Structure to design on (603 residues):
């Protein structure tokens, strides 16, 4: 029995570009699938095909039990779409926007009005209800956009990069809203470039690259594929690196090698043994008189997963590790 | 009747928008008023209409032309509005809703029609102030004058569908505005709107006689009882009211079909 969102072999080409190259998806009812991938991977095109905005060249799709290609109108009654660009009318007030969308979902004017009031409350927009949306902050606009997608409480929701461009606080807030929504039993397909976001919100993750799903599974399953935990050390003096490397090698679980990043004075080794082992490493380094700037036990992040799946990490380690690190720093500030 | 209902919801939305951008309405009025004043006072004394160079004759000849040109400028506003909706992702939202397919465009053209009617009203008042008089040449009545304005609104409505197609075809609202206006200049100038087209080079005069725009101008002059009845024996000039209705309805049918088809496959 196919899930609430089901797609098989979706292909879409734009001129020479094969935007979708056979996408298969299966999202069980009441779960969240995170569609993860870089810009241009085909995430948005997938959403556009599933929400009837774009007709795929081949393949089939079923949403909420309805064939998308055969009965697009029926599908539209059962879905809510929240786009990458907050698609609200900026000259209309929040209330007017929601009322309009309600009426276009074929609700009566009165019912649409009442529903708008409910949603404005729920999304903490009641105070701004009668201000034109162009006076809203970025976060408020996204909430309004999300509210518009929820006017009829559709059983299946699509969100295309819901938090792109939001500041950390607003992203947190929106995550809370999305979590609430999902706990109510809505099936959700969410696209994101933020690995942390998929980790946070999605039950299952499908990694997309070049118009194909290249991996799928839970966050933990994907992480397991890239190996277990590691100890990472940054030594204070460059000349201590060789000694430190010897120490780490002794604690390493044997299969993995110590990775050295010269310019950052950073050493990494795969380990088993967790915090207890970390304490031992610290003692040993101390005994040998190696001063350290930083040490920690790291579990693989989805950054690692994505980079290893797409193979970027394998090429030119130094540089790619720098990129990886940059991303993590970005994530730190996002917390 | 979700098609009617949806169109009205969208029309209402566009009218609310327009009312929140009053400067657009003001700018929309300044240009035709400027044309009325400039043409009346700059060209007024030097135009030969049916053998007369009287400034008053030209003034009464001119107004139908300015009215008609003004209503066609709604093309640009419709085009820019729809391009803007595409650009901002609103068309995606609308297309994902279970609403009637043509309603987004129909609603927009209805809203533009209301705005055109408002502009036309103000312009008629200004025209009366500078000395335009229905019945200046042959007698007319209120009903005929209103029928003339009806034809003008129909023409304006037809042209907004051309604007809708332009708006869906270009990528930005800016392009829709200029793309919506540029071609209107030859259309409105190679016509009988501002000069007596029988004095043009023969081939140009021929184009002017069959220009859909000329038919409405000619029909208005006839209904308003103003000077400038064409001596041409081209069919639209002999039966301008019919020609005006037929042209406008044809434009609506053709461009509505094309625009709705384009809308369905629109990819922002």
């Amino acid at each position: 029995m196919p899930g609430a969102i089901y797609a098989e072999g979706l292909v879409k080409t734009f001129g020479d570009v094969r935007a979708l190259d056979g996408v298969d998806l299966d999202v069980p009812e009441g779960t969240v699938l995170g569609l993860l991938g870089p810009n241009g991977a085909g995430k948005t095109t997938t959403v556009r095909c599933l929400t009837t905005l774009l007709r795929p060249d081949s393949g089939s799709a079923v949403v909420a039990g309805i064939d998308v290609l055969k009965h697009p109108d029926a599908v539209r009654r059962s879905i809510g779409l929240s786009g990458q660009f907050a698609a609200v009318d900026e000259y209309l007030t929040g209330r007017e926007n929601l009322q309009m969308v309600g009426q276009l979902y074929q609700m009566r004017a009165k019912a649409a009005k009442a529903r708008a009031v409910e949603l404005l409350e729920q999304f903490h927009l009641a105070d701004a209800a009668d201000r034109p949306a162009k006076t809203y902050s970025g976060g408020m606009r996204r909430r309004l956009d999300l509210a518009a997608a929820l006017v009829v409480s559709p059983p299946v929701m699509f969100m295309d990069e819901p938090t792109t461009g939001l500041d950390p606080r607003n992203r947190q807030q929106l995550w809370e809203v999305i979590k609430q929504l999902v706990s109510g039993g809505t099936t959700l397909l969410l696209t994101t470039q933020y690995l942390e976001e998929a980790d946070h919100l999605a039950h299952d993750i499908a990694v997309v690259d070049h118009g194909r799903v290249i991996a799928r599974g839970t966050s933990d399953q994907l992480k397991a594929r890239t190996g277990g935990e590691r100890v990472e050390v940054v030594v204070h003096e460059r000349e201590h690196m060789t000694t430190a490397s010897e120490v780490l090698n002794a604690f390493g679980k044997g299969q993995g090698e110590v990775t050295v990043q010269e310019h950052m004075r950073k050493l990494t080794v795969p380990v088993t043994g967790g915090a207890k082992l970390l304490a031992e490493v610290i003692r040993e380094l101390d005994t040998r008189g190696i001063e350290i700037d930083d040490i920690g036990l790291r579990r693989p992040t989805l950054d690692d997963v994505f980079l290893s799946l797409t193979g970027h990490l394998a090429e030119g380690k130094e540089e790619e590790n720098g990129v990886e690190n940059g991303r993590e720093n970005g994530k730190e500030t996002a917390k | 009747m979700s098609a009617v209902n949806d169109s009205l919801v969208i029309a209402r939305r566009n009218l609310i928008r327009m009312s929140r951008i009053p400067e657009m309405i003001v700018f929309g009025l300044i240009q035709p008023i400027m044309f009325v004043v400039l043409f009346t006072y700059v060209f007024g004394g030097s135009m030969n209409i049916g053998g007369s160079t009287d400034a008053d004759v030209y003034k009464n000849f001119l107004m139908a032309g300015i009215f008609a040109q003004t209503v066609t400028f709604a093309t640009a506003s419709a085009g820019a509005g729809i391009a803007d909706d595409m650009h901002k992702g609103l068309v995606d939202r609308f297309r994902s809703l279970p609403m009637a397919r043509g309603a987004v465009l129909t609603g927009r053209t209805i809203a533009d029609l209301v705005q055109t009617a408002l502009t036309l009203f103000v312009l008629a008042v200004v025209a009366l102030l500078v000395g335009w008089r229905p019945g200046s040449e042959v007698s007319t009545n209120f009903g005929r004058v209103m029928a003339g304005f009806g034809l003008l609104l129909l023409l304006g409505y037809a042209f907004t569908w051309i604007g809708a197609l332009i708006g869906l075809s270009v990528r930005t609202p800016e392009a829709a505005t200029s793309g919506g206006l540029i071609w209107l200049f030859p259309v409105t100038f190679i016509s009988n709107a501002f000069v007596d087209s029988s004095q043009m080079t023969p081939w140009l005069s021929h184009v002017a006689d069959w220009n859909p725009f000329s038919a409405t101008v000619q029909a208005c002059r006839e209904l308003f009882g103003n000077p400038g009845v064409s001596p041409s024996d081209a069919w639209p000039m002999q039966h301008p009211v019919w020609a005006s209705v037929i042209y406008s309805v044809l434009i609506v049918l053709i461009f509505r079909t094309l625009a709705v088809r384009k809308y369905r496959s629109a990819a922002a």
